[in-house]
Every structure is written in structure tokens, then in C-alpha cells.
Amino acid sequence: MAEEEENVNKKIGDLLRQARLPRRKDGEEKPPISYLEEAQNLIFSESELSLLDNFLDEMLEFLSERADPEFCKFTLGFIEKAVEKDPDVLKKITHNLNYVLHEKTAFSDQVQKRAIAVCSNIYPNVLKFAYERKNDSEAQKTWNMFNLVKARILAFIDSEDEGFRIYCVKFMETVILTQSSRSDFSVVTEYQKRFDLTGLSLIDHRFISQRQMESEMNHIFSRLIDELNSSTITSQTLLIILQVSCNIAKQRPERMTQVISTLESLHINLPPTLATHQVKSLRKELRYHMLKMLKHPINFSHHPRLQHLLTELGCSQSEIERNMPQRAEVAAVLQKRTALARAAAGAAHQAGPSTSKDKKNGDGTNDDSKKFRLNDDDYLDEGTAEILRGADGNKDLADASQKAVDITTDYVFDRLSLNVVVKLVSISLFTLPDEMPPAFQSTYTRIDNAGTEEQKKYLAKIIAMQLTKEGIGPGITFIREQKQQQYLARQSARMEGAVIPPTPGREDKLEGPSTSTTDEDKFVRPSLPKKSRITQWDILRNTKELLLPQAQNLSLMAFQRIMDNERRANQGGAFLAQHQLLTRLATRYLSKTHEQFTEMLIEYIIADQKNRAELALLWLNELFIQYGGYTVVLNSKGEPDVKEKYVRYDTALCSILGLLFNRKDNKETLFHRILLEVPLVTPAALTWLKKSCLDPIYGAFGMTTLREMILTRPRQRSELLKLFLSFSYYEPVVSAERSGQVVYDARDNCVTTAKELYVVDYIRDDLRDAIVEMSYQLTSPTAPKEIVVQVRRLSNEEADLLEDDTPWDESLVKAVIHLLVTLLPSDDSLLKHLAEITAKTTKDAQRTIFNCIVQGIKAIDMHSQALLDTIENCPPGAEILIARIVNLLTERNAPTQELVAKVRNLHNKRNTDIRSLLPVITGFDKEELLNLIPKFVMNATYHKSVPIFFKKLLYGRHIQTHEPLLSPVELLIELHHCEPRGMIEMGHLVHNTDLLLVDKTGLFQLGKEVVAQAIELLLNEYPISKLLHHSLQKIYERYPSLKNFIINMVKNITERHEYDEELQKLVVKLEGQRDPLTVQN
Q: Which of 412, 516, 632, 682 could disulfide-link 650, Cβ–Cβ 3.0 to 4.6 Å?
């Protein structure tokens, strides 16, 4: 079994090598692509996954910009089949797909279109893979990478190439169907059944958000509808979007109403850019899909609309009747709806109000259908949508829009008299073109029922739809009035609830004089007061001065009273005045109560963060304006100095941030709005932001805030970037209770955010400079104290005891260089700085850097100009780094000619270690290779590299000619031509020659024929090499069957050179070792 598997592996390897060979100019009997097809069949023929694992990387090598487009398309098809067989390959191939779809790559349009088609086919597998591995970090990275791929594909919807738009539309269809659930009324064939969210919940998923999936799905569907209603859409794109929309409606019936309305609108308003034959094709396609929808029993409520549209499209009544659903089917749908409605009502009665997102309505659709109908916003202007959204209480926008259309339809129908129609036609005559448009000519059909009530109603409805879309008409006016009445009713209720009811005594006085004249005896007329002298009122005599505690208490009570009247201020529209009053009382007068005002104001803001965020920002802005000197603030000594004003602003800002953080409210909106919108973020406030970013639970919120601050605060960008980059020093937080599971990884979050920021043009340079500056800290003799404290998470007491001359260790070096290495694939110009840093660091730090750069270097293209420039201008001391980089790049790929030239020039210029040439010797000519042999085999320094050197010479192929570098005979002869300069070099030469001749490990397997040929050629040379004497003895021992051959050859040479005593001794020595048994063999 093992032998058979080895044979299959060898056969696949041979096929792949054959496919890589260049085509012959005289033509080939077998095309190279056939070798790949045969290799693919062998890989997928086995049920085991070992073959796929072994040859996946080799197959992906054909997906290259330099490769034939046919190879690239074939490799993309291989990827699709590989995902179907083993979803784990997604961890590797997502990077390849992202690279193919990148706008800066040189792949052809056909290859990129094929890549989009492959993504459409594998997307259900990707979602299934991510859903089933919710706790796998690798699956999360794969999902994030494919989201980037998805974003790149969706951007093609605006491409000028129609082919890209069509492939993108098909991908959008897959996304919508995959990220939604089937209902009981979905029509899905066996061929169309693929993985989707039916019966699944993403609420507890770790990295897939159900809300985000629904929002993305709704946005994509809205974009499809927008494209369908576009007036500039091409015919082919229009047909494919029409097909996709109708397919979505059949598989997701909750979309049916919106699709039917869109098709009705498309039928009325065809794009003016279509030619006559294109219009005919479109009408034929519309008729086909509408007949399919008519046959769907769920659409029985839309049958009148569909029948009318089909009649206008040229369908006969008999054809419409043939495609009507059977009564039994409609009855079954109604029965099923009723059963579902009763089941839902029963469940609600037993369990109380349901909060499930999966609850279904009576028609079998999800409650999310109400959300879908809100997409009608896209067809209305902003003002109209706002009016319709607020109308009819809790009804949704679609119902309000339909009501507006119905009201306007009745209004138009009542006034659609003959006189009005004549005037409309007369006005339209001025706007008619000179020639009949092809679209109108092809769609015009004779109106058989012209003048009938049915035709007038349909015409009135068409006009009403256009009026409602423009936001005019009695329907819009009615709904606006209804909304205003509801608003006034709510305000009146609030006002009545807020008024204090009058007391009985007060009511008697307000009623006025009694109408009774007979009961005067019941009341006693008050006696008139006696006239007295009028005394003047004096404030100093009639009042007394309040004590300081009393005055302060009254001030606090007044301040509290103003805060308690928030509701009345909002009702009266004076909320801004209330905010200004509270802000100025708390900031402009520095009395003994202003600290209490501040505490009360902070507690007041935090009590209702959502509605009082504007008050917090107004308060902080007032303090900053005072600090800038634009408003006056007074204390007992006059106006405070600038430093005191700054301290007040800083204290207020940190107080509210600290209180929010301590109350675990750093995830709320107020915390982030303050940091984003205040005019100045102080260093102390950044401390609270840092704590928020390091929070194990809500750290991601803090990192998002810091990201937005970097984008929107250019003046503090350098300070913010310094704080942001410091998070790359922190190791992941590991939970001991969860068996070492990572709770929060600030470094990974920092790296992810850095990659996002690096894409932004106006941030890239600043971020790059900050990362380079941070990495240059490695050039200092000792590690900075700040880095040591953060990497090792030392407390304040431990930090105080830390010495200033802490040496660099592996963890410190990794923390400093991590970001630079991670961004290498995004910006290969960082290689220059990496080389300069490596040249100035210690040996231990260099070894750590060499281990860290593996993944980053492998992602760099070998043709990168920055890479070639770095090799050419290598800083002194960074030669080992260059050798490491070249070795990593050539592990699986042959070096390019440019790379070979740069490495060769560097070696000649700097006299670098000869071992640095090993990765690129496949680009050397034969003369250069022969010159390298003595340098390797006669130097003790390169003793361990000699086997690798021999292996590359014997098995390597030249990058241009694809021929073997050296034959075994040539290598043996050149070894015997080496001229050692002493016994030491001679000993190394003998030892390394024995590696080939003795070959105890079986690494080279020269064979006795090769050895015999080399010996024959060497014996014909004179004078004979001194090394040959030793080699003959080793061969004599290693290959017994060659003993007679060797003795005879030596004797012949001896006869020609009788005076050579060394040869005479060699013959005697060999004949003395001769064994008759071995001779016979």
C-alpha cells in the first residue's frame, strides 16, 4: 500500500514538472494543461486527503501573474473542487483569491472573472466552515479574509466592464440566499439546495454577527433593486438582474411583494437606452418570470396585478389561465398559513411576549419581512419617506406608501375626465421627440378596453405612483396631516399630565361672582380696613442677610431644580437654554459650590447618558473655551491663570471618563463620543482610553475609538499613534480558568487596526514613520524602561525597582519588531528599515528577528523593486539578513534572474559568506559553479553546507534553460582537479569527496556506472591527481564489482608511464587487496 501511494505521489510530481516545462517551438503532441488535468484526477481520485495536502501548494504555484491565463483558470477550478472535498484548505486559498482580485495585480480580466465565479460557488462552504468552527482562531482569520474578498467582489458592481458586473450580480445572489433562511413556501430545487441559515442561529457565535449578516444581505438586495431601476443599465445586465431577483423571490417569498412592485415599475418605466430588439427580449423575459410568479400559490393576493401586467405584455387569457395555481394548492397555502398563525398565537399565549427573532407570521414568512419592506425608502425622496414612516401609528413604510398611492389614485380617478385628459395630452405634445423611441415602439400595445372603468383606474394608479414617488398629491398631504395630528395629540397629553390640578378653594375664586341673589345672608361681607399711613419698603431693613451655608444650600437647590425640569424644557423647546444655563452655572463662577455643581452635573449626565450626551459635550467645550480665553471665568481673586483653566478642563474630562470606566460603561456611546468630539484630549484622558483598550471584555470598543481619533484628529495624531503602537507590546491575556484560552489579545487587535489604517492614504505616511521610529529602538544598547514595563505587565512598584540597563531578550525584540514585520506584505519598502535595524542590533536580537520575519517575507513578491534595492544597497552588517530573506523566498520557488544578479553582486562587492549563494546557484552558469566547488570543499567553515551544495549541483535545474546544473561525472572530475594548499585543505577535500563516493546515507546515489566513467576519464589524464589514489581505494572498497576494471585501467596507465613509482605502488596495493570471490562478482 505504501509503495502504491509512493508511486502515485511520484507520478503526480512528474506530471506537475511536465506542466512547468516551456512549450517547444515545433509544437507539442500533448498540451501542458492536460498534465494538470491528469494530476488533478489523481489527487481527487483517492478518498484520503493526503494527496490534496501534499500537492496543494504545488498546484497553487500555477496561480501566478506570470503564468498562462489558462493555467490560472484551471487552478481556480482546482480550488473550487478542493474546497468541496476538504474545507480546511480555505485557510490557505483565501489569500490567493484575495491576491487575484486585488486591483493592483496583473491578472487578466478572464482570470478575475473566473475567480468571482469560484467565490460564488464556494461561499456557502465558507459560511458553513466559519459557522461550525466558532471557537477556531484560524477560522476567524479565514472568515475575515474572505470578507475582504467579498468586499472586493461587490465593488465590481460599478465596473465599466459588463462582464464583471454580471459575475458580481451572480455573487450577490449567492450572498443573499446564503445569508438568509428558507420559509415553508420557498421553491428550491435539489440542484439549488446549498448551505444557508435555515434553522440556524448566530446569536452566540463568536465572530459572525447575525445583525451584520442581515444588514449586509438587505443592503445587497437593495442595491440589486436600485440597479434594476437604473435608467442607464445595459440590456445584458438588466436581464441577469431580472433573472436573479425573480430567483431570490421564489426561494425567499418574503421578497415577493417588493420584486413584483419593482417589475411593475420596470414595465412602466423602461430604460431609454434599450434598442428595439432589446426591448422585445426584455418583455419576453418579464412575461416568462411573471408567469412563474403567477403559478406560485403564495402570490394569490397579487393575481390581479400580475394578470393585468401579463395582459399588457401580450399574454392571452388562455395562457394566463393555464399558469394559474390549482385551487387545491391555494387552499393548502391558506390552511398552512392558518395553522402557522394559530401555532404562533398559542405559543405567544403560553410563553407571553416573544422575543425570538425566528418567530414566523401566518404567511410562513419571517418577521424580518417587515424590515425588508422598509427598503422602500430607496424609491422615495427623503422627505416623502419620512412622512410615510411616521404615518399610521405602528404600520411600516410599505403600508403607508400603499395607502398614499390608494388615496391619490381615488383623487386622480375622480378628476380624470375627458377635458383633463385632453389638456394632459396637449401639454405632452410639446415634450415629444421628433422620432418615436424604439422602447415605446416595441412596447406599445393597442388598448382594447380604452375608456372603461378598469382602464381608467389603472391609468389613475400609474399617475398616482409617479406623484407619490415625487412626494406630491393628496395621499402625501393626508398622511402629513395625520402625522401632525398624532404629534399634537401626544403633546396635548403630555401637557395635561404635567399641569397641577387646582384646589377647591382656588376653583371658587376662579368661577367669579355667584348668580344667586337670594343667599346673600349666607356670606359675611368683610369689613373695610382702616386707612393707614403708607410706609416705604426698605430692603436693608425688611430683609436679613443669609448665612453662607444657607446661600450655598439655596444655590444647590436651584441648580437641582433646573435639572429636574428637563422634561418641561424639552416640551417647550427650551432644552438648549436649559443646557446652557446648567453649563454656565457650573463653569463660569468659581465659588465654593462649583465643585458640588460639577459632581451633580456629572451624576446628572451619567444617569441618562443617551439623552444627555450633548450636555456633556457642551460642558466640556465651555471649559475648553475658557482655557483658550474666549469666555470669562471669575473667582474670588479675579480671573484664574491659563494653567488653572487647563487643570479644570483636564479634571472635568478625566472625572467623567473615569466614572464611566469604573462603572463599566466604557462600552457605551457617551464614553466614545467624549473622546471623539471634545476639542482637546489631554494626556490624562488618554490614560483612561488606554485602560479601555486593555479591558479584557470591552477592549475592542476602545480600540475602535482610538482608530477613529487617529483618523479625525490630525493635530494629536503623533501622540495618538504612539499610544496606539504601544498596544503591540502587550502579550495576550490568558485565562487560567479556561485552560489557557486567550481572553483578549490587544496585540492582535492593534495589528488588525494597523492594517486597516495603512490602507488610508492620508494616514499611511504618519503610521509608517511611527512604526519605523518604534522599531529603531532596537538599535539602542539596552531596552527602554517603558517597553519592559508594558511587555512584562509590571506594576508600579515593580517598575520602580526595574533597572535602567535591561538587556534585550526574545520577548522584548518580538514586541518591538512585530508591527514592522506584519506590515511587510503591505509595504515592502519597510525592508530597507528592517535591514538598517538588523545591522545595528546585537547577535541575539538578530536571531530573534530572523525567526520573526518568516511569514512576512514569504508574502513578498520576488519581483519587488524594494526588495531588489534593499539587496543592492544592503547596509553593512545586514548581509546575514539578506541571506535569510533570499533563502525564505526561494524555499518553494526558483529565484528570478534579477534576484540572482543582485545577490551575486552583493557577494562580489562585500565578500559575503559563500553560503548566501546557495539559494541562487540555480541562476549561475557552469563556470561560476565550477569556481565555487573548491571554495566549499576545502574550507572547514562550510563543512555542514557541503551536502546541501552537492545536492543542489546534482539535482538543481537552471532557471532559464531548465537543464541540470552539473552531471555527477563533471562534479567528480572537478573535485579531483582541486589543488589544496596544504594538508589541512587536502584533508577537507578527501572528506568531502568521500561524501559522494562512499555515500553512507544514500543521499546522492551516484551508481557504479557514473563512478566508472569518471575514473576512466581521470585515469586518462596525466599527471594523475593525488586525490585519485585515495578515491580508487575507496571505490575499490565501495564497489567490489569494479575491482578488475580499476586494476586493469591502472595497469594500462602504468605501462604507458613505467617511470611513475606512485602508480607502481598503487598497483601493488590494489592487487594485494584483491579477492577472487569479489572478482567473480
A: 682
Name the CA radius of gyration of the chain, rounded: 43
- A 10 A CB-CB count for 427 gives 9
Q: Residue 666 falls within a domain, yes or no? A: no
> What domain range is 763 assigned to?
681-731+745-822+829-859
DSSP string, 432-500: --SS--HHHHHH----TTTTSHHHHHHHHHHHHHHHHHHT-SHHHHHHHHHHHHHHHHHHHHHHHHHSP
Q: Measured between alpha carbons, how far is 989 from 744 in angstroms, rounded to an integer?
A: 57
Residue 137 in grid coordinates: 482562531
Q: Kindly state whether residues 775 and 788 are assigned to the same domain.
A: yes
Sign of the Cα torsion 869, 872, 876, 882 reads positive
Residues 834 and 919 in one domain: no
Tell me: do 885 and 995 sit in the same domain: no
CATH code of the domain covering residue 277: 1.25.10.10
* The total number of structural domains that make up the chain: 7
**Distance, CA of 664 to CA of 658 (rounded, Å):** 10
Q: Which grid coordinates are listed for 850?
A: 530572523
Residues 171, 36, single domain; the answer is no
Which band of pLDDT confidence, cut at 50, 70 and 90, is reported for residue 308? confident
**Based on the domain organization, do 933 and 895 belong to the same domain?**
no
672 lies in some domain: no
pLDDT in tens, 939-960: 888 888 888 888 888 888 888 8
**Residue 573 — left, alpha, or beta (φ > 0 → left; ψ -120 to 50 → alpha)?**
left
Condensed to tens digits (0 to 9), the pLDDT of residues 185-220 reads 888 877 778 888 888 888 888 888 888 888 899 999
90 plus 182 within the same structural domain: no
Q: Are residues 138 and 206 in the same domain?
A: no
Q: Cα–chain-centroid distance for residue 547?
A: 66
pLDDT digits (tens, 9 = 90+) for 1031-1049: 887 887 788 777 778 777 7
Provide the pLDDT confidence category of residue 391 given band limits of 50, 70 and 90. Answer: very low
Among 136-150, 372-386, 628-642, the range scoring the smallest mean pLDDT is: 372-386
Cβ-count burial of 529 within 10 angstroms (0-12 exposed, 13-18 middle, 19+ buried)?
exposed
Residues 879 and 833 in one domain: no
Cα dihedral: 113, 116, 117, 120 (round 10): -170
Q: Is 895:919 a contact under the CB 8 Å cutoff?
A: yes
Please tell me which residue, 419 or 499, carries the higher pLDDT value: 419
- CB neighbourhood size of 543 (10 A): 9
Q: What DSSP letter does each residue of 288-321 carry, written as one string?
A: HHHHHHHHSGGGGGGHHHHHHHHHHTT--HHHHH
